[in-house]
Structures are given as C-alpha cells and as structure tokens.
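Before relying on records like the one below, remember that each one covers exactly one chain. Contacts with other chains, cofactors or solvent are not represented anywhere in the record.
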Amino acid sequence: MLVATLILVALSAVFTNVYASCQYIILDVNKVKSKSVEDYKDMLKEVDLVYSFKVVGSSRLLFVVRLNESSFEKFSKINLPGDAISIAVGDLSDKLRTVGVDWKKWDELPDANLTLFERTLKFEGEPTEGAVSHLQAYGEKIKPIVESFPNKGFFPLGRTPFKAYFIFSLSFRCHQVGVGSAFALNYLNGPGDSTTKVEFLTKV
C-alpha cells in the first residue's frame, strides 16, 4: 500500500493543461460561522451536487457540481457566503482515456478514510507532446493501483500554475500519506517545481 501512494502522488506530478471538455465545477469555500453545512447545500439544491466534503480540522468545504446544459444559468445565480472560488474541471479518467489509457471508473467514494491530494505544478517550457507522454506513461504505471483504491480525480482547465485534485479512500492513510508526500517533493526536480497539499476529508 505504501507503493500505491507513492505512485498515486507521482501521477499528480504529470498533470497537464491538455484541453478537455468541462464536466464539473469544484466550489472551494471557507464557511462562515453563521451558516451551517446544510445551509450551503440548500443553496446548491437547484444544481447537480455530486459530492460535498469538509476538510477535517478547518472551515473549508469542497462541493463538486456536475455541469449540464440547464445548470449553467442556475449556477451563475448562486452566491455562496464566505470566501469561495469556483474551478472548472474535467474528469481525470476521461482525460486519460483520450490519450490511450483506460482506467476503471469507480461509481462512488466510500464515506471513510478519504484523503485529498491537492497538487500544484510549475510546468514551464514543457511542450504539449512531452506532457501527454508523461501522462500516458504514468497512467499505465498506476493503472493497477487506481483500480484497487476507490478514487476520483479532477484537473482544472486552463489554469496556471497547473493544479490537480485527487480524492482517494486509503486505509492506514496517515503513514501512506507521509511517505507518498515525501516522494512527491522529490519528483520533477524537487519542491521548487511542485507542491503537494494533503488534507483529510469527511463527507457532509
């Protein structure tokens, strides 16, 4: 399982800005004290809310909204209280399929042992062909691991520095996360080229 996390975090280091269709919006919110989680979810009742998470030990909430033709106008009218940003993202497994790597897609995330790997990359001067090659190679390498651990992966579209969100259900997560994060810092020439933020999540 330690190897699993090492490779999973390494995959985040090959996140690229190769174009993919927008499928979701991630709402990253710092909740205000006067509002409950249910208040926020009620504000999102008119859109297709797929996941809602709370970052353990903080007021940060993450909502994943599936986009469709009817949801754009509804979404544009939502004004969440507190510091909130919206990030257009694509599904990572769908992106990999377009470059020839076919992963098993998990239907659902379990309610326990959820870990968020939030990866920020500084790809400077990397040609598109090279980025795609990285994605293909690591996608193939971690395929058996990704198919063993329930997960969801998203990547923001058209943003720099590049960022990726990976949510995994990992048992014994504290030890795994520590080893995996240390490995990630030494990938792509060290921490100056990339950073990994690790958070524990609960579904809300």
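Residues 1-20, 186-191 have pLDDT under 50 and may be disordered.
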